[in-house]
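Show me a record, fold above all:
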Amino acid sequence: MIWIDAHPDIMTAGQYPNAHAHLLAILMGEGDADFVATVPNRVKPKNVLYVGLTETTPYETDFITKHGIARLSPEDLQNGVAPVTAWLKAHGLKHAAIHFDLDVLDPGLYDFLLFRNPSARPGAFDGVAKGRMTLSQIQQILLSISSVSDIVGLAITEYLPWSVIELSRELRKLPLLGNAGGAR
């Protein structure tokens, strides 16, 4: 499992209320019992590689250390993606499932990220780890993974096209497209 993300997604409801931050822990068999019960084949922490992970909270750092999960920061990959393929080869992993959370990308470069929400109050994302990677780097990583392993799954998450969302809201106000003016 290659987890390309600025966040490790291993919190529980005790650390963070939003379940999207719990996902990898659940896949590993930890967290909310009802969700964990839905995972028939749990991911072994030794088979997880974080790519692009930035700052972590003390809870996240302890979890990662306790479980021995490998991680590569954007800085670890600044000279190329060889560390990713080296990890796959060292673990003899012939198949890779990939979680690609777009928040691993630099919000200064891409406007479809949570951190670019034009309606967010000032300071809403202060203290939240932000990505520092580019789409070109992610493309190189995915190509390198596919050169040594079969990619058997790819999830791309947290795409938030703010201008499209706003356009949709406004179009719903028009006749025929929404309830503007009511039915005649």
